[in-house]
């Protein structure tokens, strides 16, 4: 008598069902294959032709990808800080979704940077092992979240400007940068739409919500102009951001007018000796952000799970 | 390189999407191309969103299925250009989504910047077929989905949003 019978009461039907389901998943998808994290498939540019096109300087291309990648990475971190803290669950899901889009763009751009500069540094090395002065993001994205209206104002400025930039970059000679931009322009359109909808809702809401929205705009507005101030690398790579100033300001002015808000007259935040985020000169807000972002990777270098 | 025989494509095409398992990668439009060169197979995948966390698992699944089907040398590669669009979801894929209670997307295109009153696309409830539906949130449980509700049957449902 070699038949085995499961004794009723010893193994519930639920247990049997679980094991049945696992075995029916098919032998070809067993075990570790289901868990791809940490496998060779983690390269976000796996198999993409990463030759730097003739006529482009690899160091410049890398520096430029680092600028855009750091913008996306740092703002993704700020958006993620809203997780468990947003006014409503739906907004929390929305803000973290936007952060996920930006994180994906950052992974591609940082990977591209590490290839194009010839150092072979991967995304993790660039994200976790650089110091604040090595980050090339604009100061707009590192500013603290403030309240919800403040974060909406920052997102409105960034998404409007970055969507416009990606629209231009979709035709860039570097195929990787162009592909990231072509994908990103549609993602940023959703970000812009989200921020615009909340700006209208708060600005056109109660006097109190309008005052909070206006205060948020007033706080972030001095950081806007840095996005349009060309850095020599941006000029050499053929992506002069000053061309965006007029159309972006026009779009923002239309949104604020519809929302019953005022375009702030605040002057741009000064550069320090002609340098700002694109040269690694940041506000005091970036250090604590990076400390939180990098602490686990630095405590356990090279850890996998 | 020669054109892929139907079998290698069929094997890769049948791999289910990890987040929408009622759809195959081919029906989702993520499987861009499969090429065979002798005993070697190369499959190209196009990620949906920049930050889609499922792409690594998709690549691992395609790799495992092709090897299990007897192809000794398998490469899975990413193709970013042209970007994925919801227009790449096949008719079968759209039908299966609706059968699973997820409203399929309409024609792709960026959301238009609207400054006037919000006007949503007309969306049919995948549960009851009702047309009195409203968007609860443009963002849902995954990057590609929005959260809706039907005022006819009072049930919430998810919807693939156009991109």
Automatic annotation (TrEMBL), chain A:
GO terms for molecular function: phenylacetyl-CoA 1,2-epoxidase activity. This is Phenylacetate-CoA oxygenase subunit PaaC. Its EC number is 1.14.13.149. It comes from the Bacteria. It comes from Kitasatospora herbaricolor. InterPro entries: Aromatic_CoA_ox/epox, Ferritin-like, Ferritin-like_SF, PaaA_PaaC, PaaC. The keyword Lipoprotein does not apply. Signal peptide: none annotated. Keywords: Oxidoreductase. PANTHER family: 1,2-PHENYLACETYL-COA EPOXIDASE, SUBUNIT C, PHENYLACETIC ACID DEGRADATION PROTEIN PAA. The keyword Transmembrane helix does not apply.
UniProtKB/TrEMBL annotation, chain B:
SUPFAM superfamilies: Fe-S cluster assembly (FSCA) domain-like. Residues 14-68 form the MIP18 family-like domain. Transmembrane segments: none annotated. InterPro entries: Fe-S_Maturation_MIP18, FSCA_dom_sf, MIP18-like, PaaD-like, Zn_ribbon_PaaD. It comes from the Bacteria. Residues 119-161 form the PaaD zinc beta ribbon domain. It comes from Kitasatospora herbaricolor. This is Phenylacetate-CoA oxygenase subunit PaaJ.
